[in-house]
């Protein structure tokens, strides 16, 4: 692949993950993949980087979003409105780009799982803060699994790889993979707790993520990720993440062996830091994913009358 085709642009974020990478595909069409947070700082930095390689926002034809998280999609609505950029995203991800989705459902679900009220309130506050980094978006087009997107001289294939986010996609072309957060070299990206976009059910995020990692175990090519280094061994990286899951899995199952408990009680045994309001949500996300897996593997059962997890 022509090495001048994909330009990496790095932008700051206010989130614990640190900087985010977005990419300019410089073909006949100019396509941005992801765009950074809705901050003046990211807007100005992105503009400056584009200027340095000879472009302005008005030269950008399309913006392809890997997923709805604001470090990747935050500026989308502004680029669409002010610069006429046409924005595409997977249909499943659409609802997550509208603010205040599932607020009642989250509260109800956390109460059922014995999360203390002050932490539920803190998570609601955290969500308001998080939502300040994007605007509601109505995309110009939807992308779907296996779809081919031409940029002129090159064709990218969309792959739907859910887990970290339900409608997460990556863009594949000739051995290059622009992958958002679906595969990072050093971090096992969290399979975020959320609800299905079209039913009241919770998404089995970790199980989805594991299916995506199983698919990526067989990949070759260069990965251009949303965070961290570019790398050339996606298969090995995917396998290492799957293996690291087994360590956490054993911790979670052992925690249930100590005695039945609610999600919050089991999480406290594995990750005592769940009581720090800033990370409560991520800790609960992590543990519920492994509890889903432990139920699939018949190591644990969920007693839905008492809302506790029990050892089988
Ligand atoms: Zn993300
Ligand atoms: Zn990210």
Please explain how this structure is put together.
The protein has 312 residues and is α/β, with parallel strands linked by helices. It has a single domain, classed as Metallo-beta-lactamase, Chain A, CATH 3.60.15.10. Helices cover 36% and strands 19% of the residues. The chain has helices at 40-52, 70-73, 76-83, 103-112, 117-131, 205-216, 234-257, 263-270, 280-296; strands at 6-11, 20-26, 30-33, 62-64, 86-90, 141-143, 148-150, 155-160, 169-173, 176-180, 222-225, 300-303, 308-311. The strands form 3 sheets. A 6-stranded mixed beta sheet has the order 1-2-3-4-5-6, covered by helices on one side. A 5-stranded mixed beta sheet has the order 7-8-9-10-11, with no helix packed on it. Strands 12-13 form a two-stranded antiparallel sheet. Strand 8 and strand 9 (169-173) form a beta hairpin. The radius of gyration is 20 Å and the shape is globular. It starts with 5 loop residues before the first strand and ends with a strand. The model has no long low-confidence stretch (mean pLDDT 96). The site of one zinc ion has 5 residues, from loops. One zinc ion is lined by residues 67, 69, 164-165, 181.
